[in-house]
Design goal:
By secondary structure, this protein is α/β, with parallel strands linked by helices. The protein has one domain: Rossmann fold (3-Layer(aba) Sandwich), CATH 3.40.50. Helices cover 29% and strands 27% of the residues. It contains 5 helices and 8 strands; from the N terminus they run βαβαββαβββαβα. The strands form 2 sheets. The chain has a 4-stranded parallel sheet. Strands 4-3-6-7 form a 4-stranded mixed sheet, with no helix packed on it. Strand 1, helix 1 and strand 2 form a beta-alpha-beta unit. The radius of gyration is 15 Å and the shape is globular. It starts with a strand and ends in a 5-residue tail after the last helix. Bound molecules: iron/sulfur cluster. The site of iron/sulfur cluster (SF4) has 13 residues, from helix 2.
């Protein structure tokens, strides 16, 4: 059975920053028959509820910066992602929650240090690790559209 890595909030886990979920039964219906392996780097690293963070372009690359403290939170999320993919070598597909600075594949907001919006098509820290592992990665909404409108089989 093919393994799909998927944001835990899409499965109904109340792990969002505000303690809510993003349960998506239509998406999950399309994934019937796959083994779903859930992940939530932010809950693991920072607990729930928690302050939000944003992707920020810096001289050292794109970082996840706390909106409360301005702390750089990139490293714990990255370490979680690396451990996750080390432990799950046979993942065929990554589906991340749209717009998340951790899980969004090409839908996260990117700001500069002055909080100006640079892009709405940035890649979250965990999604970036999936891509670097060579795993096909989609935002949940994009995956749903592709499965509805084409013969994308996974
Ligand atoms: S989008 Fe990712 S980090 Fe945010 S709650 Fe969902 S699984 Fe956790």
């Amino acid at each position: 059975m093919k393994k799909v890595a998927i944001s835990a909030c899409l499965l109904g886990n109340k792990c969002r920053y505000d303690g809510r979920e993003n349960y998506d039964p239509k998406l999950l219906g399309l994934l019937d028959g796959y083994e779903l392996v859930s992940f939530c780097p932010e809950e693991f690293c920072f607990g729930t509820p928690r302050p939000t963070m944003d992707l920020v372009e810096t001289d050292e690359g794109i970082k996840a910066i706390s909106n409360l403290t301005n702390a750089d939170l990139t490293q714990p999320v990255k370490a979680y992602a690396q451990t996750f993919f080390d432990l799950n070598r046979d993942i065929s597909l990554f589906i991340g929650k749209d717009r998340s600075p951790s899980c969004g594949v090409k839908s996260a907001k990117l700001h500069n240090r002055e909080k100006e919006l640079l892009s709405t098509e940035a890649t979250g820290i965990m999604a970036q690790e999936a891509i670097e592992e060579g795993i096909k990665a989609y935002d949940a909404e994009e995956y749903l559209e592709l499965r509805r409108s084409s013969d994308l089989s996974i």
